Amino acid sequence: MRTQVAIIGSGPAGLLLGQLLTKAGIDNIILDRVSRDYILGRVRAGVLEWGTVGLLDEAGAGDRMHAEGLPHDGYSLAFDGRDHRIDLFGLTGKRVMVYGQTEVTRDLMDARDAAGATTIYEAANVTPHEFDGAKPYVSYEKDGVTHRIDCDFIAGCDGFHGISRKSVPEGAIKTFEKIYPFGWLGVLADIPPVSHELIYANHPRGFALCSMRSETRSRYYVQCTLDDKVEDWSDERFFDELRRRLPQHHADAMVVGPSFEKSIAPLRSFVAEPMRFGTLFLVGDAAHIVPPTGAKGLNLAASDVYYLFNGLREFYADKSRAGVDAYSARALSRVWKSVRFSWSMTTLMHRFPDTGDFGQKIQEAELDYLTHSEAASRAMAENYVGLPY
Ligand code: FAD
Ligand code: DHB
């Protein structure tokens, strides 16, 4: 088999890149090690920057998002028993879209089906080869038979645990990592959200986040320890804990009900540099991870796709390598700013086991500064809605 771009991974990064390439007339094949249903069963991000919204439109996969997604003009920081609203639209002229990653993925898969592009699910032992030269290829096994796809470029969109980054010789890659001493326990439940905007709460008992997927479906999180087990958290215990971490008026307004998804995610910052090795590109979580507090993971995958797609389009349309050559530097410049923002919002809103009195006072001073300084609130809002590409 031959294609122009072989894409490893059918998450949001691989699917968005594939759809933009297909629309530009650039042939591509997507390979994933798991099934389509498995991918659609994963519950992850919920907030889209407007740049991501624009890319989904450009990919021809934005109709349902505009019909069913919820544009949000602000969110609340809750602490000390009160709310401080970050007026995203008033401060930046931009808003975000609340629309789940599962739905984004489904829309991109449907658009890909409609375009007739090839995706190979349940492909085992997917491996990129010879990407230091001009004739790279990807091998994989399916139903016991080994296959080979020759290509011009390989896009490694296979997430943090994928094979692409691991295939790069150790001496050619530098990694940066920070592990946080807590996780997030999240539930999904068909109950109306406690508020029509998101609430990020800092409480002596720990962080909490009230998000949503629709006007009848809530997505709630509480900070938990790294030893916590999902089995130890009944719905009753979860909602009791969540309500204790919110200002009284929100706790009183909360409707509770049975959850149908409950999971724990560890928090990590990670960056691999560079993001290009010859004809292999790392895209999205394959190259970087951020803690979820700033809602940036999926949006960073989308901005990487923007830079790579434009580089590949220039390569095929204008016979110019300039965009492809600039990919890593352009992507990393934006990545590090989102890594910084995600770290700072995580540091501001969580209770760290080793903070001490001094760290606690600094956190309180920063929250108070945000409340009284429009400049500070605007800086936070500018990062949250997404820095320009
Ligand atoms: P992924 O979505 O990870 O997709 C990678 C794809 O590659 C997968 O389909 C996988 O099956 C496939 N793959 C992996 N290895 C191989 C292989 N060897 N061969 C072939 N295919 C392979 N972000 C937020 O902004 N907010 C959140 O609340 C949030 N919650 C999260 C919760 C969890 C548990 C996780 C893991 C992430 C969360 N994120 C969140 C981050 C966000 O979901 C990711 O940033 C986003 O999924 C990145 O998309 P991606 O396409 O780069 O990678
Ligand atoms: C959601 C997740 C986040 O990490 C975040 O910052 C906002 C919303 C969510 O899952 O809805």
Automatic annotation (TrEMBL):
The keyword Oxidoreductase applies. The lineage of its organism: Bacteria, Pseudomonadati, Pseudomonadota, Alphaproteobacteria, Hyphomicrobiales. Its EC number is 1.14.13.2. It comes from Rhizobium oryzicola. One of its GO terms (molecular function) is 4-hydroxybenzoate 3-monooxygenase activity. Keywords: FAD, Flavoprotein, Oxidoreductase. The keyword Magnesium does not apply. Residues 2-342 form the FAD-binding domain. This is 4-hydroxybenzoate 3-monooxygenase. PANTHER family: P-HYDROXYBENZOATE HYDROXYLASE, TRK SYSTEM POTASSIUM UPTAKE PROTEIN. InterPro entries: FAD-bd (IPR002938), FAD/NAD-bd_sf (IPR036188), HB_mOase (IPR012733), RIFMO-like (IPR050641). It comes from the Bacteria. It holds the Pfam family FAD_binding_3.
